[in-house]
Amino acid sequence: MKQAVLTLMSLLIAGSVAAAQKPQPAAASQKTPAPAKEQPTPKANRSPSEKPEPQPQPLNVKIEFTITDQAGATEPARKVVSMIVGDRQNNSIRTTGSVRVTDQAAPGAARTFHYREVRINVDAHPVLLKDGKISLNFGLEYLPPGPGRGEGSSPHPGLSSLNERMGLVLESGKAIIMSQAADPASDRRITVELTATILR
């Protein structure tokens, strides 16, 4: 009887051990989500392609401004400004000064005077064209003294200044009158003549 009990206990212990060592069913593996397909990147809005600017030609251009300032029948005053600029290059000239102006004095009073600024400023940018002509963008500023009316008098106000910004197509070596400015308060007039010449 005792032996049978021991045998039964041994069988129970062996069954428990076997059950403990029995491999457990593997947990269902979670499916890894497939990577999302990359959406095609929309094409960037591109500005229209611009043609590259041609290279400058190895040539210079001589530019000459002739300013004629005249009031009435008096002898006209002429100022000439010239420069040499490379093709597709920028050039500037700045000229300033002061002139002594005698003020109008009362009879018997001592004369007084003051100084007035005068200047001529020029900017130019030439481009040589295929047909041998010149495309010229330029600026001109002219501030002259007013023409006098005799010894001891104050200058006539006249045209106080001339300021121009232009773009022209010119033939090499051919002078043109590019502007004629009149003073609405007097008979004073300023004429500007321009010549551009390709130097070879």
Q: Count up the helices.
A: 1
Question: What average pLDDT do the residues reach?
Answer: 79
Distance between the termini: 136 Å
List low-confidence stretches.
148-158
Task: Note the topology.
Layout: H1 2-21, E1 60-71, E2 77-86, E3 91-102, E4 113-128, E5 134-143, E6 162-170, E7 176-182, E8 188-199
Antiparallel strand pairs: 1-2, 1-8, 3-4, 4-5, 5-6, 7-8
Any overview of this molecule?
- By secondary structure, the chain is mainly beta.
- It is built from 1 helix and 8 strands.
- The protein has one helix spanning about 1-20, and strands at about 60-70, 75-85, 90-100, 115-130, 135-145, 160-170, 175-180, 190-200.
- Strands 2-1-8-7 form a 4-stranded antiparallel beta sheet, with no helix packed on it.
- The termini are far apart.
